[in-house]
Design a protein that fits this description.
Largest sheet: 6 strands, mixed
Main location: periplasm
Family: Belongs to the bacterial solute-binding protein SsuA/TauA family.
Keywords: Signal
Helix content: 40-55%
CATH topology of the largest domain: D-Maltodextrin-Binding Protein, domain 2
CATH architecture of the largest domain: 3-Layer(aba) Sandwich
Shape: globular
Strand order of the largest sheet: 1-3-2-4-11-5
Distance between the termini: 40 Å
Number of helices: 16
Strand content: 15-25%
CATH superfamily of the largest domain: Periplasmic binding protein-like II
Number of domains: 2
Pfam family, one: NMT1_2
Protein name: SsuA/THI5-like domain-containing protein
Length: 333
Amino acid sequence: MKKFMKLMMFFSMVAMVSFTLYACQSTNNNAEEIVVAEVTRSIFYAPQYVALEQGFFEEEGLLVELITTPGGDKTMTTLLSDGADVALVGSETSIYVHAQGAADPVINFAQLTQTDGTFLVSRNPVDSFTWEDLKGSTFLGQRKGGMPQMAGEYVLKQNGIDPQNDLTLIQNVDYANISTAFASGTGDYVQLFEPTASIFELEGKGHIVASFGEESGHIPYTTFMAKESFIGEGETAKKFTRAIYKAQVWVETHSPREIAEVISPYFEDTDLELIETVVERYKKQDSYATNPILDMEEWENLQNIMDEAGELPERVDHSTLVNTEIAKQVMSE
């Protein structure tokens, strides 16, 4: 958390944007323009791209500009400095901001993913993998304080592995360099997002042996959030949530191939077959939330994981940082 807040202060005057895309073109001159900052570009966020490509935002009178702000710290800084109206990022960031006493709280109002999105990849083939195989190994994990790392360590502990004593845990590699470090020979196991995990498997650089998403249970891994003032102004948040819900229903009722074809413009350097493989894997383990409600059980599971990792500044009531009324209204229409 300390690293997170230092970076928040460092970037407080700058919105770090690596990728900008007007994702929806509208002929409606009265369309309301909003900026959405996503923490990374990922197939894990397929319903968001479906909402953009299928015109669900446009149907609600919204013109969405999508920007990519790599890292939870940069994404939240962009939101807090009014560089974006809505942020797509891990719910833990709203807890970190709350702990600093924000005058205009950041509220989670629509959930997009409901499991961890990473996979355990081994360097060598493993027959009949068990978590005991990690003992004595070198494990290349994710950045300390981030949700992937916290969920990863939580899963290890749930399976009887002490991350600090049963293996050599490496956490000082920057997120963008983790896959490169593993490919260069660092670690016996690595925690990776898709499509990198599948690419490594196809290229023979690694082998997917387990899913952290399946092991950690339902958590609000990635949600849309905004300042309380934005949510309270007019119908924009409701229109946004309605478009996301339409996309969630669409993803639930369409095949991985159909989804891959729709979202492929956002992944021009990735083969369609690989996008389909990744979508299928995420659908199979229920990573895509089927509705935008972030419920109490998921919120408590998130805080339990943060607490176990020693990163929870204080427990926060579900009602304090989560708005479910908008999602419930949209779903009841």
